[in-house]
Write a structure and sequence with these properties.
The chain is mostly helical and 388 residues long. The protein has six helices and no strands. Helix 2 packs across helix 4 and helix 5 packs antiparallel against helix 6. 1% of the residues are buried.
Length: 388
């Protein structure tokens, strides 16, 4: 304990730091000066600790478990003041031997007989089974432990926040990459549209040139048409004669086409009727096939149920036969035992021969009745199996 406080609160020593100093001091110095804490809401704040006098001014708000951390200079100054102003502990008998830090616990001694080798050091830990001794040092140690726990929680929260920030940063980077890819895609589309517009402009120029060429060709064609009209006046009579012949051929062709159309219509109507009848027959056959398949499926289900029922009935009959055989054997054994006992009693007790004879007769009648009952049962089972 003395090494713990000397290593934590001594500023002039240059020896290697202990494990407690490595775990407590860097966390207090690294988190408390640079971190800005959020004030928790009143409904979620932790309960306040009772004010404890540690020889330094405190306030109820500083006793909050989530309050700001102490500085290293405050802790060192308070520890030195506590060492200088601590009164000597009262002399009281120890109920147990002092604890050996590097070895196992010592065996408890008798009450009222203190160990002569024990010393009343102010840093010595008392027996946990003895009366509680809440000194300022233990309270200060508890306070430091609570601060260390709080700093660990803050470090975990800071790590979680940094991990969340890294995740958000990676998400933002991925979103930026997607935006850049989308921008490149849109740029490619814009370039393609520009090239398409240029191509359409060139096509429009080509169409304009084609329109001008077509206009020139039309003017030339009109000139040729005028020349043709002049030639038509010369050959009008010949053309009218040829036109009359063409009209006659057209009328003949139309008559032949009407006759062929009527014949084709009659043939197609006959084919349509045949196709309709064939389609109806196919529908009937398909419906009949579906009904046959349904009947076959139902028949298969019924046959499967009958097979299961027959198998179950066969198992039941086998069980009944086994039970009946077991019953017959047990009953025969009991009857034989009773007959033997009756014979022994008749041989041993001649005076009760008459009673034994009556007993044997009744047992024989009982056996005959049981045989008759079993025969009737077997006959009924045989008749039931034949009907099944």
């Amino acid at each position: 304990m003395r090494r713990f406080f000397s290593s934590n609160f001594s500023k002039d020593e240059t020896s290697s730091p202990t494990r407690e100093e490595k775990t407590s001091r860097p966390r207090a110095l690294s988190l408390s000066p640079f971190r800005k804490r959020k004030k928790p809401p009143p409904s979620k704040s932790t309960p306040l600790l009772p004010p404890v006098a540690f020889d330094y001014p405190t306030s109820p708000t500083e006793n909050d478990m989530n309050a700001s951390a102490w500085s290293y200079e405050d802790a060192l100054r308070n520890a030195r003041a506590l060492q200088n102003s601590r009164p000597p502990p009262p002399a009281m008998p120890l109920y147990t031997a002092p604890r050996n830090v590097s070895g196992p616990l010592a065996v408890d001694t008798a009450v009222g007989t203190p160990d002569p080798s024990s010393t009343t050091s102010p840093w010595q830990r008392s027996n946990p089974h003895a009366a509680p001794h809440n000194s300022k040092t233990s309270q200060y140690i508890d306070k430091i432990t609570q601060e260390n726990e709080r700093l660990r929680r803050e470090l975990k929260a800071e790590k979680a926040a940094r991990d969340e920030e890294a995740k958000r940063w990676s998400a933002a980077q991925s979103k930026a990459a997607d935006s850049r890819a989308e921008y490149q895609h849109l740029q490619l589309l814009a370039d393609a549209n520009a090239r398409t517009i240029e191509r359409k402009d060139r096509k429009l120029e080509e169409l304009k040139a084609a329109v001008e060429t077509e206009a020139k060709r039309r003017r030339a064609a009109e000139q040729r048409a005028e020349e043709a009209l002049k030639m038509l006046g010369d050959t009008r009579s010949e053309t009218q004669r040829q036109l009359a012949a063409a009209y006659e051929q057209k009328h003949l062709a139309e008559t032949n086409a009407d006759a062929a159309r009527d014949g084709y219509k009659r043939i197609t109507d006959g084919y349509d009727k045949k196709m309709k009848s064939i389609t109806d027959e196919l529908k009937q056959l398909r419906h009949q096939r579906l009904e046959d398949a349904d009947k076959i499926r139902r028949q298969a289900i019924v046959s499967e149920q009958l097979q299961h029922e027959l198998a179950r009935k066969q198992r039941t009959e086998d069980k009944m036969v086994d039970v009946m055989g077991t019953y017959k054997r047990e009953h025969r054994k009991e009857v034989d035992n009773l007959v033997r006992e009756a014979e022994q009693m008749r041989n041993v007790l001649p005076s009760k021969e008459k009673e034994a004879t009556v007993l044997v007769t009744s047992l024989a009648e009982t056996r005959d009745k049981m045989k008759w009952v079993m025969a009737q049962k077997t006959r009924q089972e045989g008749s039931g199996g034949g009907r099944g």
